[in-house]
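I need you to check the entry underneath: sequence plus fold tokens. Let me know what the token row says about the fold.

>
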Amino acid sequence: MSQYFGERHWRGTLAEAVALGLRLEKATGQVFTWLTSTNAGAAEVCRAALGLLGIGEDDLDRGYLPDPSSKSTLPILARPGIVIRLTRNFDKQRGFVNGAVGTVYESLRGNEVFTVRLHGTGNLVLVYPMEEDGTNFLPCAYGYATTICRAQGASLLRGCIWLSQKRYAA
């Protein structure tokens, strides 16, 4: 296996790998996406990316609840430059669809209402809280990583696969 993967196998820490991905994205102008085998793995990658952007646990404590269907536990911070993945189909014509990824463009009301510029189309969409089963949340999650299952059908230009599963051999 080591012969097959050769130099493509990362030997550093996850934070170092995420930092490299962020640098590649900035240098090429192409979105860099992490694919993970678990939701917990995607959360670890997103947490590492946020940490590299100077966002700590105290900042996250002030965030807004993400979409429960995303299985993410990381509260959403609406700061310009943060990458967001939409989790609901609200406006197909403008691109507000489940799985669309974009960058927070402008915060209009704290972490509650903000605009996102979609990476695929360049359209701006408005993100605001929704209520379902008595819970208020934003119809999004961080977009630095997603599970392999969620990425089915997506077109990804650059990325990395992190086999985050620890219980069974990947």
